[in-house]
Amino acid sequence: MRRSRRNNLRIIGIAEGVEGKTPTAFISNLLKDLFDLDGPPLIDRAHRLSQVTPKTGQAPRPFILRVHFFHVKEQILRLAREKGDLTYNDRAIHIFGDLTAGEAKRRAAFNDVRKILQNIAGARFGFRHPATFRITMPGGEERRFTDPEKAMDFVKSASSASPDSD
């Protein structure tokens, strides 16, 4: 991750326009309310990506925000993981670290593997920074991959070897 992105977060799923004219204050108060913080975190700036407002029915533009203190950014990510499903105005929202385009592309290469793992009961998976894919199979076997093809081979062989498979 580039140093300039180190304190950045990306928030996906917040409806267009709810931030009003002060997106930085809105996001700061949203984070305070979502995580029951003592006070609103210090946010240097917050804005939506892209200048083009999406049409009705399209997904809202994500927010990018810069948290003033790195440890506060890490605390927000930890709280988001611990809390699990986050909602605002009855809409699911997601909070991530801000990745470079290259990191996002490397992670997206694992999408097919992730779809298969979602259908395997007890399988757990996720990314270690920046694009190392971690898989824990129902039997407890854990592996890490940087190559999506090797991850797919592992998942196929592990799921066909499991006693629950048809």
Automatic annotation (TrEMBL):
Record-linked InterPro entries: L1_RRM_dom (IPR043636), Transposase_22 (IPR004244)
Domain L1 transposable element RRM: 6-95
Any single Pfam family the record assigns to this protein: Transposase_22
UniProt superkingdom: Eukaryota
N-terminal signal peptide: none
PANTHER family: L1 TRANSPOSABLE ELEMENT-RELATED
Protein name: L1 transposable element RRM domain-containing protein
Organism: Coilia grayii (Gray's grenadier anchovy)
